[in-house]
Backbone:
């Protein structure tokens, strides 16, 4: 039965009550939560869910958070992803007459800072957790002149497919609907429509934790050597004394035995049994990296040859581009219209990530080496990219080939050398400008 709610009290994020259980998680708990979600998906179209909590993913969030908190590899993968989506890579731009996006410096400054980094991180996490609820308040910080408060609402208090926030986890009333007119301008629900990528990584990481515990027990049992002492004495006290002497010898480095006493160290014969555990853990790390970043090599794995590394870099960049498109769509469709309605931003701007190439330092040097041979490059651009202050570009041709400014073969070229020798020495042919970036004339 549908229940009409008249609860229109002011929403206060500080009043939300949630229960956190992120320790000692098992795969059985994950299976139960998947079954719970399946039951919800089976009946939501029939019952509607008005007045009752159906899409409660609080316990599933416990599983997700437990994996992020307790698995160093997953936490590192997320940090790598965050490094690619925040910072100065994005801008607010306007479209000019030629259809190109031109950065609006004044408006871009308004959306760069800690609060908007938090906002972008929350949108990205919607792909990982399945959803994110965002609170944007119009208050302006008197020190920075930017928005003072952007909050990510606790996921345990959000029913994403029912589009509702509840004050107490698992209880319908009191609660607030995202679609209520008094809340729709300040509250955004970013719902990926699924359980998120963590639904695939969670069972792997839980299995990895179990495997790691077994590996530790295996190492304690078989990885430490056993010291065996032998004595002719039949007295129990003599045997205990020898055992104590052997135990203390690990610190004292000295042991004195009887004439016929023996001390032998029994070491474990390696049989590669430990690779059963290490192989499973490496498999989990590789799958987690491939799922979130598109490539395990971008999460710290090493490749055997350069071609494979470049192929993985291309896959990684395509995956990051996919995250960026998702963030752009949410920002332009959900966030910017609300910021314009608040009067914080001017109308007509578009959130865009810069289309600059993501390259290593060596690749950038090669690119500038190529460009400066054919085009004039501003010294400001070199300083901005590499932090190197340069002067006038000396390889520019003034007045055509053979003019001033370091052209052709230079002042010492009297055509004594052949064209081939000249090219080997100066790195360019007669009549062509040199390249100041590589140090060649």
Residues:
């Amino acid at each position: 039965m549908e229940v009409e709610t008249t609860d229109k009290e002011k929403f206060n994020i500080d009043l939300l009550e949630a229960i956190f259980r992120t320790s000692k998680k098992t795969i059985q708990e994950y299976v139960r939560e998947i079954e719970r979600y399946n039951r919800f998906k089976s009946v939501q179209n029939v019952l509607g869910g008005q007045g009752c909590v159906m899409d409660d993913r609080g316990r599933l969030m416990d599983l997700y958070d437990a994996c992020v908190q307790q698995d160093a590899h997953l936490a590192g993968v997320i940090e790598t992803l965050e490094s690619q989506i925040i910072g100065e890579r994005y801008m607010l731009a306007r479209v000019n007459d030629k259809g190109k996006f031109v950065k609006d410096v004044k408006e871009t400054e308004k959306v760069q800072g800690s609060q908007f980094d938090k906002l972008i991180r929350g949108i990205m996490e919607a792909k990982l957790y399945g959803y994110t609820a965002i609170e944007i308040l119009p208050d302006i910080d008197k020190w920075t002149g930017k928005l003072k408060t952007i909050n990510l609402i606790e996921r345990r208090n959000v029913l994403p497919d029912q589009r509702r926030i509840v004050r107490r986890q698992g209880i319908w009333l009191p609660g607030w609907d995202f679609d209520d007119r008094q809340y729709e301008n300040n509250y955004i629900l970013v719902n990926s429509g699924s359980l998120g990528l963590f639904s695939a990584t969670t069972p792997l990481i839980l299995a990895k934790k179990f495997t790691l515990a077994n590996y530790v027990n295996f190492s304690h049992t078989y990885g430490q050597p056993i010291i065996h002492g032998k004595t002719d004495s039949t007295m129990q006290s003599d045997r205990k004394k020898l055992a104590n002497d052997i135990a203390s010898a690990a610190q004292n480095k000295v042991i004195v035995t009887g004439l016929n006493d023996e001390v032998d160290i029994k070491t474990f014969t390696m049989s590669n049994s430990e690779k059963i555990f290490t192989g499973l853990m490496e498999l989990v790390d590789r799958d987690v990296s491939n799922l979130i970043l598109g490539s395990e090599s971008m999460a710290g794995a090493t490749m055997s040859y350069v071609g494979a590394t470049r192929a993985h870099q291309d896959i990684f960049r395509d995956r990051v581009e996919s995250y960026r498109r998702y963030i752009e769509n949410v920002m332009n469709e959900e966030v910017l219209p609300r910021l314009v309605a608040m009067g914080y931003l001017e109308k007509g701007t578009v959130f865009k990530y810069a289309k600059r190439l993501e390259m290593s330092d060596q690749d950038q040097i090669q690119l500038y080496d190529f460009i400066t041979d054919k085009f004039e490059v501003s010294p400001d651009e070199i300083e901005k990219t590499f932090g190197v202050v340069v002067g006038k570009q000396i390889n520019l041709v003034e007045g055509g080939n053979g003019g001033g400014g370091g052209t052709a073969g230079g002042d010492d070229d009297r055509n004594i050398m052949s064209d081939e020798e000249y090219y080997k020495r100066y790195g360019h042919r007669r009549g062509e400008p040199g390249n100041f970036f590589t140090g060649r004339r």
